[in-house]
Amino acid sequence: KAGVTQTPRYLIKTRGQQVTLSCSPISGHRSVSWYQQTPGQGLQFLFEYFSETQRNKGNFPGRFSGRQFSNSRSEMNVSTLELGDSALYLCASRLDGTYEQYFGPGTRLTVT
Amino acid sequence: DQQVKQNSPSLSVQEGRISILNCDYTNSMFDYFLWYKKYPAEGPTFLISISSIKDKNEDGRFTVFLNKSAKHLSLHIVPSQPGDSAVYFCAAQLNQGGKLIFGQGTELSVKP
Questions:
Q1: Cβ–Cβ of A99/B46 closer than 8 Å?
Q2: How many CA atoms lie within 13 A of B34 on its CB side?
Q3: Closest by alpha carbon to A37, among B20, B108, B34, B36?
Q4: A70, A87, A94, B36: least buried by Cβ within 10 Å?
Q5: What is the pLDDT of residues A96-110, one digit of tens each?
Q6: In this complex, is the C-beta atom of B100 within 8 Å of any C-beta atom belonging to chain A?
Q7: Which 8-state DSSP code applies to residue A61?
């Protein structure tokens, strides 16, 4: 079974721009969660989607948003990018009714 | 408020010996705990998990122990191999929600 895939793997953007990251979960997994990893804050939860609905949200500003499609693929969007948004963005999927989350390789976002 | 803590940023072990990675938590309502292994610029890889109703779970060379009264869990790797060298994260979850709360990670180095 194919794992979680994320595109693009690397991205360089300028302050003030917006960015959209994409995630395809493991086949059959309907829950998709997004995390941000930075050296200072570690791994932090952004939000979770299930059946096209946001089910859980972390403590991030409204510039961070996401959505999920009927095929369970998910996108996250960051608007008005700031230098502090430079991070590794990770997507994880899980089978509903289970706890284990399986992560993709991440998208490395650099904001200049 | 750091609900999940890994107090040792690094650990060095000789090949063939036991590696013990520790994790403490503050929220007694956590009902599931997971360990992940991570290489730089990659997503975390799920290793092993334990429900709060158990005190031990074993999978090959990996064993996780949970001490609820002390709010402490540990990951034992026996025998340690050079390929185990990576950053290990413990994570906790509440009520099967999609939000994993991660510790800061412990970098394990296994010397040949």
A1: no
A2: 22
A3: B36
A4: A70
A5: 889 999 999 999 999
A6: yes
A7: -
